[in-house]
Design a protein that fits this description.
Aminoglycoside 3'-phosphotransferase, Chain: A, domain 2; four-stranded antiparallel beta sheet; three-stranded antiparallel beta sheet; globular
Length: 313
């Protein structure tokens, strides 16, 4: 039975260095994060290097979409050295409350994030298959059932065993109503959140491809939108233009009406189940965070329940 963790997550460590006068970042992968063995971490290092090479080889990548520059790779040591990319993380800029960013800069960055996703998914999936941890199966119901079982073992207020059954039945209906094209395997970033998007006002550079894998086409875009929506629950005293940001992501990706798709709703539930698991798995540092976590979990479960009542179209 999983127990709440008291340590901090540490799947990799990054240090800044200088090589021949060039500022670089050296990433060293470690085993143990969420129980992942070192074999999986080595595979993630290889996936990050492979996806960087394939992106660098694209001929028609727009100038405003940045690419990670690989300096050196040491697969046997699970380490990767990359050149420093311009800009700061989109999350740091959002949380600083930059008014110019909120007026339009973030919307432009998210539009580019959607376009970058569309480019990523043009890469050939043949010839490389990352090794995944047992807790990260591709199939939607299997993936979500693992999260639901973990939540039940952690004994939160939600879900109950009956809730678990309801969620799985609902997810099954959403997937049955989704087309084959929406369920095919494409390259995905795997952690496509604002912390991994560098923005300098002109160029958007996604970084940290450690969790790149083959997954559903809408996984990354819905995850980015989920992370943006989390700001509204994590900082309820602040106003974020979430609808404009959501629309920018989907417009850039080329599917402005994706919110109406059953698989979109299913993926949003998947992301929220993961968020609940993460919040409960890593205990709060203090009493203030304890009550804040309760608030966020209540918002997450209320949103999941709201989605479960929506008919499948």
């Amino acid at each position: 039975m999983p127990q709440p963790r008291t340590d901090q997550r540490r799947s990799s460590s990054v240090r800044r260095d200088t090589i021949n006068g060039q500022s670089v970042f050296v990433k060293q992968y470690h085993g143990g994060d969420w129980g992942k063995p070192l074999e999986v971490m080595h595979s993630q290092a290889a996936a990050e290097a492979e996806i960087s090479k394939r992106l660098a080889a694209l001929k028609d990548m727009p100038a405003r979409l940045g690419r990670m520059e690989i300096v050196s790779i040491d697969p046997s040591n699970a380490s990767l050295t990359t050149a420093e990319a311009p800009g700061q993380s989109l999350e740091s800029q959002i949380l600083k409350g930059n008014r110019r960013l909120h007026r339009g800069g973030c919307t432009r960055a998210l539009l580019l994030a959607g376009r970058w996703q569309a480019k990523l998914q043009t890469l050939d999936t043949a010839g490389f298959q990352p090794v995944l941890a047992e807790t990260e199966p591709f199939e939607m119901l299997e993936y979500c059932d693992i999260r639901l079982k973990t939540l039940l073992e952690l004994k939160p207020a939600w879900p109950s065993p009956r809730d678990r059954d309801r969620v799985l039945v609902w997810l099954g209906k959403q997937m049955q109503a989704s087309s084959f094209d929406q369920q095919r395997q494409v390259w995905c970033h795997g952690d496509f959140g604002p912390t991994n998007l560098l923005w300098d006002g002109f160029t958007l550079t996604p970084i940290d491809y450690a969790t790149c894998c083959l997954n559903y086409p809408l996984v990354d875009v819905t995850y980015l939108i989920h992370r943006l929506e989390m700001y509204g629950w994590q900082f309820p005293w602040r106003a974020f233009p979430l609808q404009a940001w959501r629309a920018a992501c989907l417009r850039g990706y080329g599917m402005p009406d994706a919110e109406q798709l059953p698989i979109y709703r299913a993926l949003m539930v998947r992301h929220m189940l993961c968020r609940l698991q993460t919040i409960l798995y890593f205990p709060p540092r203090n009493r203030k965070q304890h009550w804040h976590n309760i608030w966020v979990c209540q918002r997450l479960t209320a949103r999941i329940e709201q989605l479960l009542t929506q008919p499948c179209v």
